[in-house]
């Protein structure tokens, strides 16, 4: 896999568009990104907090989160001694099957599947997921067909529940991959130029939008303002330098795009909850 801007590419390495990853890393985090595949996160143990388009979703034992294809998301935090599975699949590869277009709107909603939504749905989806994990681990004859069958089962379960509880699908997202690719140009521009004094005008031009339209679209896709994202990105780069180098905090602040040490200290503390000097000493 590789990230280009925020676009995560190269998810699928097998012959069919499916990927399953077990993760047990303590306090795991993963930066903001998006991909063309839908994703189902199964939190088997512990807690896991995921931000999707700026909205946070905390999963506890046995809860799941369906993240639509093309939705910008981030793993904010995971507890120690936890276990979670990331299951990615491509809805578009199922286009040849009758009825898939009928359920597609329900696959374009971010849906937390827990007891607060419906205990029976959570239990049924969890059963499908555990069977899917078992098949993936064993890799018996025709296991790829079994994986696809379990994905279909999950799609049917979720779609039927959402159709029954909320028949109006008018609020599903109208975003397109083409729009995401344009927004991705902005992220790539920020990655290349964050040490410079870049402006909203610079980034909106790189994305091919007016400043007004870009600001609105950026907020819609990420849940953040352009300046909020830029400051967060700069602080992340500065934090890496604080950990890995002995350079002065002033040098790091300037090389990370902040025009003064005072501004850097204020924004760093706001985002990280401590001063840069404390962050370095504590080895956070």
Report on this structure.
The chain has helices at residues 100-103, 119-138, 143-165, 177-193, 200-207, 211-222, 226-244, 249-255, 261-272, 276-282; strands at 2-4, 7-9, 18-23, 30-33, 38-45, 48-52, 55-59, 63-67, 73-78, 83-89, 111-113. It has 284 residues and is an alpha+beta fold. The strands form three sheets. The chain has a five-stranded antiparallel sheet, with helices on one face. Strands 4-9-6-7 form a four-stranded antiparallel sheet, with no helix packed on it. A hairpin with a 2-residue loop joins β1 and β2 (7-9). α5 (200-207) crosses α6. It starts with a strand and ends with a helix.
- For this structure, the quaternary state is single chain
* First-residue to last-residue Cα separation: 27 Å
User: What overall form do the CA principal axes indicate?
Assistant: globular
Structural class assignment: alpha+beta
β-sheet strand percentage: 15-25%
Low-pLDDT residue intervals, each spanning 5 or more residues = none
Please tag this protein with its features.
five-stranded antiparallel sheet; globular; 11 strands; four-stranded antiparallel sheet; 284 residues; 10 helices; alpha+beta
Question: What would you say about this model in short?
Answer:
With 284 residues, this protein is an alpha+beta fold. Helix content is 45%, strand content 19%.
Topology:
Blueprint: E1 2-4, E2 7-9, E3 18-23, E4 30-33, E5 38-45, E6 48-52, E7 55-59, E8 63-67, E9 73-78, E10 83-89, H1 100-103, E11 111-113, H2 119-138, H3 143-165, H4 177-193, H5 200-207, H6 211-222, H7 226-244, H8 249-255, H9 261-272, H10 276-282
Antiparallel strand pairs: 1-2, 3-10, 4-9, 5-8, 5-10, 6-7, 6-9, 8-11
